[in-house]
């Protein structure tokens, strides 16, 4: 059954408006800096010192970033071997941030206005009188913060905040590296270079590539015994960017004229590096003529210039132009005509491949 306010029992006979008493504000206790000018000056000096520590730490961060060898290591008791470059950068940035934080807190607790104030609720509109009152309040706050008298605080705080931004910006800008050009996105493939089976290093005759067969190949000189004397780092990079998959197809099912022109007798070669995040595209479905990336299931149509038909990849696999040499072996007719690997926002910019105009 519904009840009404009049049906509720009274609380000890008191009226609703008298049930709670406004406790009011506690007595104001002035701070030491409010009544002692020496204490105020001492607090201002402490704030300046904290901001100065922050500024010096920011400068030391920049010096360490450019002066210390990133590979320098050392031993810290209780921790063990550490990278000193990272330790110094962490300490200097931490001190920079700590100086700003402690300086701001000490400033607010000792010198900023310390007045209890009650503000009644009011309509959302802002009459001219209220705007004038706000302007007067801001002006009073500026004066009461003592920034007009203690300009050293304003200068040191501005310097600390300004310099603290540098450790955040400089490593990002300096660590971007060179602008992408051909030396970053071209491969070692050259005209006349044989396609060698990976990992045996055996050359492939065009007659050996039957319909539906698949070969994983590398450029001549970078696989098998020929690669034993190459530096490990160089070989790793070549394997990552120059890996190619060769597939034999019936030319009648191929829809792309460019694909036919760059292939030979139904044999086609495409980069194995997925254009999504660079995983090796190594799975071939003979019935559907689809290439699949095992990482994120991007699917490429081998009958239509490896166009993407499913998955997160947004670009087709680059095709390697091939031909046959005098001995009947498959060789590259040229290098890739477009950057291999993952997509990036400047992929269409001229100058990414050798011979392009920058």
Automatic annotation (TrEMBL):
Every Rieske domain range: 260-331
Coiled-coil portions: none
Record keywords, A-Z: 2Fe-2S, Cell membrane, Disulfide bond, Electron transport, Iron, Iron-sulfur, Membrane, Metal-binding, Oxidoreductase, Respiratory chain, Transmembrane, Transmembrane helix, Transport
Keyword NAD: no
InterPro entries: QcrA_N, Rieske_2Fe-2S, Rieske_2Fe-2S_sf, Rieske_Fe-S_prot
One Pfam short name: QcrA_N
Annotated segments matching region Disordered: 1-31, 119-140
Entry membrane topology: Multi-pass membrane protein
Biased amino acid composition, Basic and acidic residues: 119-132
Compartments (UniProt record): Cell membrane
Positions of transmembrane segments: 47-68, 84-105, 152-174
Chain's role: Iron-sulfur subunit of the cytochrome bc1 complex, an essential component of the respiratory electron transport chain required for ATP synthesis. The bc1 complex catalyzes the oxidation of menaquinol and the reduction of cytochrome c in the respiratory chain. The bc1 complex operates through a Q-cycle mechanism that couples electron transfer to generation of the proton gradient that drives ATP synthesis.
UniProt similarity note: Belongs to the Rieske iron-sulfur protein family.
Protein name: Cytochrome bc1 complex Rieske iron-sulfur subunit
Organism annotation: Ornithinimicrobium kibberense
Taxonomic lineage of the native organism: Bacteria, Bacillati, Actinomycetota, Actinomycetes, Micrococcales
């Amino acid at each position: 059954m519904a009840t009404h306010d009049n049906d509720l029992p009274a609380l000890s006979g008191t009226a609703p408006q008298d049930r709670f008493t406004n406790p009011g504000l506690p007595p104001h206790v002035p701070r030491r800096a409010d009544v002692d000018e020496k204490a105020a000056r001492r607090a201002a000096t402490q704030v300046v010192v904290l901001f100065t520590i922050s500024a010096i730490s920011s400068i030391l961060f920049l010096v360490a970033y450019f002066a210390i060898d990133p590979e320098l290591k050392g031993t810290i008791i209780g921790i063990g071997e550490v990278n000193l470059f990272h330790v110094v950068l962490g300490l200097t940035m931490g001190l920079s941030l700590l100086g700003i934080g402690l300086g701001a807190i000490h400033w607010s607790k000792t010198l900023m206005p310390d007045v209890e104030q009650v503000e009644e609720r009011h309509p959302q509109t802002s009459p001219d009188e209220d705007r004038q009152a706000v302007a007067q309040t801001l002006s009073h706050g500026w004066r009461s913060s003592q920034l007009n008298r203690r300009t050293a605080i304003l200068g040191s705080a501005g310097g600390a905040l300004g310099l603290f931004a540098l450790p955040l910006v400089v490593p990002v800008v300096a660590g971007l590296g060179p602008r992408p050009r051909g030396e970053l996105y071209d491969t070692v493939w050259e005209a006349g270079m044989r396609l060698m089976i990976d990992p045996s290093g055996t050359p492939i005759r065009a007659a050996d590539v039957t319909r539906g067969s698949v070969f994983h190949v590398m450029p001549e000189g970078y696989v098998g015994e020929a690669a034993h004397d190459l530096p490990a780092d160089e070989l790793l990079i070549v394997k990552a960017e120059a890996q190619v998959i060769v597939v034999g197809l019936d030319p009648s099912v191929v829809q792309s004229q460019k694909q036919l022109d760059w292939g030979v007798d139904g044999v086609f070669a495409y980069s194995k590096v997925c254009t999504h995040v660079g995983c090796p595209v190594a799975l071939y479905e003979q019935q559907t003529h689809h290439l699949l990336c095992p990482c994120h299931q991007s699917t490429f149509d081998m009958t239509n210039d490896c166009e993407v038909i499913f998955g997160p990849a947004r670009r087709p696999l680059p095709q390697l132009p091939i031909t046959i040499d005098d001995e009947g072996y498959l060789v590259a007719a040229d290098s890739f005509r477009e950057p291999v690997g993952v997509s990036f926002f400047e992929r269409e910019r001229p100058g990414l491949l050798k011979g392009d105009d920058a």
